[in-house]
Amino acid sequence: MSPEEASNDEPEWVGTWKKHASAFDRVKSVTMTLSEPQPAPWIAEEAAVSPNTARDHLHRLIDLGVVTVTENDGTRRYYLDPLYTRLRDVRELLRGTTKQELSEQAADLKNDIAAWETEYDVHSPDVLRERATADDVSAEQSYEFVRIASDWELARYRLSLVQDAIENYDTWTSDPSSITV
Amino acid sequence: MTGERNTPENSPDTGDHRTSHPCSGSVGERVRSDGGANSGRDRHRILRELRGELVRHPAVRSVEGEPPDEYRELRAALDPSWFGRDTETASLRVTWIPDPTPGPEASDRANDTWIRTPIRAYYTFHYSEPDGLDCGFHCEPNPHVDGLLHYQKREDANDASTYELISFGARSVTGLLWEMMDALGDRLDDLN
Prior knowledge:
The complex is a heterodimer of chains A (about 180) and B (about 190).
Chain A: H1 12-20, H2 23-32, E1 38-39, H3 40-47, H4 51-63, E2 67-72, E3 75-80, H5 82-94, H6 99-120, H7 125-131, H8 139-167, H9 169-174
Antiparallel strand pairs in A: 1-3, 2-3
Helix pairs in contact in A: 2-3, 2-4, 3-4, 5-8, 6-8, 7-8
Chain B: H1 27-35, H2 38-56, E1 60-66, E2 73-78, E3 90-97, E4 122-128, E5 134-139, E6 149-154, E7 162-165, H3 173-191
Antiparallel strand pairs in B: 1-2, 2-3, 3-4, 4-5, 5-6, 6-7
Helix pairs in contact in B: 2-3
């Protein structure tokens, strides 16, 4: 795809996106939603920028601690830094939330997990996903199991964030710079 | 799915297990041991990013994660006039399950499961108006369609939904969001 100018053969939605998000924002958002590391030309094509523009922005994001890079077989691949996203998520939780509210959130999440354990008679979302593959499970049931397993995994992640926030609440709220990313 | 778990299958999963296992060396694994599952972390990450992208769109008035403490989906308030719709309010519901494992293909329930989209995830992108119209793009199993990705529409709460196979070309999640917003505009334009 050509650099930032509109291209005749690009889909209309790309033009809308380019009108409302800068090249840097497009590169960042494509990278932040990757499911696996990708090389700069792939990210460039998806973000509708030139490969050199993508590399420039990716290097900026590396400097900011948002993105990491790995090299394999001579190809550099970029991926978000999971530590960055984790600290960002914890910081969001701490913003405007009291320790008591965090404790209530933790209790709610534990209740959700306990309810799934009881309803599906399993102690892990992995088991639910395995159950979804059984021959005697209908397609609708299989989808339900995967959906609940995903909700459960999400609750686990949220719970781990809330627990981190509670454990470090006093330190991180008295000295916000200690969690700045 | 990750290949490893920190919670034994037969022990209660309260989240408290996370400190009982030593962290391994890499950052990714440290995060995984805190979060329990990459899938949960990825779902949260993608929904959060999609919220930020939706805010940029001129048809979007506001976006929130729902429920606020768990963030299982996004709910956006839209400006229907941007789509040429003659109604005061409209909403958009977005869900995203990044890891469809085991997925329908594991049991051969569909042949063209992922052919019409390069992105492997279950998602819904559903528009609703208060007087009955609701329509949207769904990439999830549905007994009325072959494969996953389809458009479904119901013009009135008393109507039966109609289903249509569709395809999207975007390979990135954010690209897909903009492609779907554009496609939604086209669909609503057809109804005007």
